[in-house]
Structure formats: structure tokens, C-alpha cells
């Protein structure tokens, strides 16, 4: 990794750590926020935590904020809304800007962009309001995944193995998004590529006893296994790192983030989604991958804060 661009904590000024909000990913954000706040404070950075945008905006109006470390997941924090507001206020913020945030938060439009650019993503059907289109679903084979189009952390996601499970899965996803994606399941290993300041981090492969890498497997289970190094040959890993970086940049991703993909038996990556504000809990993937490069948690949060420059 490149050397730090800022050597003195004082040069960051007064940092607002934005967490919480009111999305379904609130608890994940709060958990990660506690770790990030501690990591910043240990390095002498002047950091104040704000739960949700209204408290942050009040502090900005009072002139007590110089830059924002954004760790508010989901709608409001990861979809371009906070990025646009801070841009208008002239306050620097970590990570991806307005357009990239909006694109990556919307799984449907992410997939449309990837398709247009020839980046492989699992075949899918868009299910809007109304009855399920049985003819469209009949084109798929085997396992399906049903997802809300605009949420992360696997909230509202279901693995469907028969037609009886499909309607309840769509109903669950609709609690979180008017637009639902019904996606062909891809057989293969599940991999994650962290991105930090234009560099793809070492890949992580996961194994879980759960039916898939759901909310429990991500944040609560001690049975999920993480492999980093991931076990691939160096040339293959390098190829997939570059493919992941290209997939992230195609959506306007900047600064830091994560790209998730399935690697099939032919060595072909099928990209699932990109995350511009990944988790920073003790189960999270970006800190694990950074550690392989010798970047400990405190160094990582410093480098993420530098993406606000």
C-alpha cells in the first residue's frame, strides 16, 4: 500500500463519525461505529460520533465539523443522500460520491450496468408489485435467491429451493423494497474483494454451515469460516482482484468498499453486488483482508479517513 497522505492527526481537523440512522442496517452500523470511534481516538484524532443525519447537520451548522467518516449503512447513508447533502454543504466525506453510492445501493441498476459492460452477473428477473411472473421464473433452474433491490447485510434475502417458498420470499423482500430481484443461484465458492484507495485487497473466501451467507452468518455466528489467503493460485487471485476492482469502478465506486462474487467451477466470477460502506464489526471482511497486508484496524480507519481528502 502507498504511504499515508496525512501524518498528523491534527491535520484531519474535527471528524464527525456518522452511524446509525433508521435503516434496517442500523445495529450493524452502531456496532462498527464503536470500533471505528475507538480506533480513531487511539490515534489522537478529534472524533465525535453522531447517530443519524439530523444530529450531524446541526453540528455542521454550528461550525464544529471539518470532515465526515461515514459509516451509516443502507438507505440514507449509502445511497447518495448523505453524500449529496455534504457535497452541497462543502464538507468532505469518506468513500464514494453521489452517483456511485446511488448505483451500488441499487442492486438492479448495478446489474444493468455490469451487463452493459460485459461484466458477468447472475441471471435475474425483476419482480415489481403484483403477482409473480411464473413464465419468467420458469427460465431459471435449481436454487434461486430473492432480494430487495436496495438494502445490504443480507436483510430480506431468501434462498429458494422450490416453488412453494417463492411467494413468501418475495413478500419478505417487499418489506424492504418495492423492487425485488429474483436471481439464479450460481454454484461455486463465495469470495469478497475489499477495495482500499484504488487497490484490491487480498480475497477472502467464506464457508458457512448456514444455507447461505445470511445475516446470522455475517454478524452473529461463530461457525462461519474465513480464509485469507483464500487458497487460489497467485495468478488466479491477481486476475480476480483486478476483475473486482473493474466491477467496483464500473459503478463509480471510490475510496474504499467491497465487491462480492461467486467463483464457478470454470474459474469464472459472477458478481453479486458492491458495497461502498462495508461493515466494520469484529466479523467484517475488509479489516480481515487489510490485516493480511499488515494494515491493522487503527491503520485501516486512518486510511479510510484519508479517502475524504
Task: Please give the structural blueprint.
Layout: E1 14-19, H1 26-42, E2 46-51, H2 53-61, E3 67-70, H3 81-89, H4 98-105, H5 107-116, E4 124-127, H6 134-137, E5 144-148, E6 158-160, H7 163-174, E7 180-184, E8 189-196, E9 199-200, E10 204-207, H8 215-219, E11 225-227, H9 234-250, E12 256-263, E13 269-275, H10 285-292, H11 297-306
Parallel strand pairs: 1-2, 1-3
Antiparallel strand pairs: 4-7, 5-6, 5-7, 8-9, 8-10, 8-12, 10-11, 12-13
Describe it for me?
- Mg(2+) 2 binds at residues 273, 275.
- Pathway: Cell wall biogenesis; peptidoglycan biosynthesis.
- It catalyses: 2 D-alanine + ATP = D-alanyl-D-alanine + ADP + phosphate + H(+).
- Belongs to the D-alanine--D-alanine ligase family.
- It is built from 11 helices and 13 strands.
- It has 309 residues and is α+β, with helices and mostly antiparallel strands.
- It folds into 3 domains: 9-96, Rossmann fold (3-Layer(aba) Sandwich), CATH 3.40.50.20; 103-120 and 187-306, ATP-grasp fold, B domain (D-amino Acid Aminotransferase, Chain A, domain 1, 2-Layer Sandwich), CATH 3.30.470; 124-184, 2-Layer Sandwich (Dna Ligase, domain 1).
- The strands form 3 sheets. Strands 8, 9, 10, 11, 12 and 13 form a 6-stranded antiparallel β-sheet that branches.
- Helix 1 links the parallel strand 1 and strand 2 (46-51).
- The longest helix is centred in the first third of the chain and has 17 residues, at 26-42.
- It starts with 13 loop residues before the first strand and ends with a helix.
- The mean pLDDT is 91.
